[in-house]
Design a protein that fits this description.
The structure is a single chain. The chain has one domain: TIM Barrel (Alpha-Beta Barrel). 37% of the residues lie in helices and 21% in strands. It contains 9 helices and 8 strands. The protein has an 8-stranded parallel sheet. The longest helix has 16 residues. The two termini are 20 Å apart. Pathway: Metabolic intermediate biosynthesis; chorismate biosynthesis; chorismate from D-erythrose 4-phosphate and phosphoenolpyruvate: step 3/7. Pfam families: DHquinase_I. It catalyses: 3-dehydroquinate = 3-dehydroshikimate + H2O.
């Protein structure tokens, strides 16, 4: 996965959902933290879509405990031939335990998405810019998911997305929550490289997500 252009990822906790995702998605985001036996699921994967592996830690909105097992599982996932990208939290890199994942991904030629989530607010532009700058020191893509409370929040995120893209940086941005919902359709217009969507609305992995078919339709219509 090179993220040269927009990638729509179907967020799945069960890789069996790939069949239903195929029609609209470019990739699967496998939420390992939400799966019962993620490494066995990877071994049994015979889908068509490439996999972005995420093992989201609990303090960043996921369900994985913050222990060695989480990071070890991510490292093992990288060895799987269909895993073409891996998500590592910037905070995990800063803490040190994410560094080995990035290094192994580099050795395997697996793309690295370094992510930051803010479940409270949309920070000031300078702060968002700083976070993406740090993420891009380690990742092929810097991903920033913030929480919007107003249209002004979304505008700030979109303006930043546009500026980063114009400067040749690969970023993925989205505003979580109701007020930010439309950002998921509009941010790709300004250069955001990744969108995330569940196949069915009930399986949303973040607040404000559209279902996959809807997001594909919106992104296509705005292209
Ligand atoms: O980091 C992200 C982005 C996301 O939080 C979203 O807002 O769509 C959804 C997650 O599944 C994914 O890992």
């Amino acid at each position: 996965m090179d993220f040269d252009s927009f990638v729509l990822a179907a967020s799945l906790s069960d890789l069996g959902g790939e069949r239903a995702a195929r029609e609209h998605a470019d990739a699967v985001e496998f939420r390992m933290d939400l799966a019962a036996d993620p490494l066995a699921a990877l071994d049994g994967y015979d889908g068509e879509l490439p996999i972005l592996a995420t093992n989201r830690v609990e303090w960043e909105g996921g369900e994985a405990a913050d222990d060695d097992a989480r990071v070890d599982a991510l490292r093992e996932a990288i060895e799987h031939p269909r895993v073409e990208a891996v998500d590592v939290e910037l905070a995990a890199i800063a803490a040190g335990d994410g560094v080995g994942v990035v290094e192994r991904a580099r050795e395997r030629d697996v793309a690295v998405v370094v992510s930051v989530h803010d479940f409270e607010e949309t920070p000031a532009r300078a702060e968002m810019s700083r976070l993406l700058g740090q993420a891009l020191e380690f990742g092929d893509v810097g991903k920033l998911a913030v929480t919007a409370e107003s249209r002004a929040d979304v505008l700030r995120l979109l303006a930043l997305t546009h500026a980063q893209t114009e400067a040749g940086r690969r970023v993925a941005t989205m505003a979580m929550g109701e007020a930010g919902r439309h950002s998921r359709a509009v941010a790709p217009v300004y250069g955001s490289r990744i969108g995330y969507a569940p196949v069915a609305p009930a399986d949303a992995t973040a607040p404000g997500q559209y279902d996959l078919a809807t997001l594909r339709g919106l992104v296509e219509a705005l292209e």
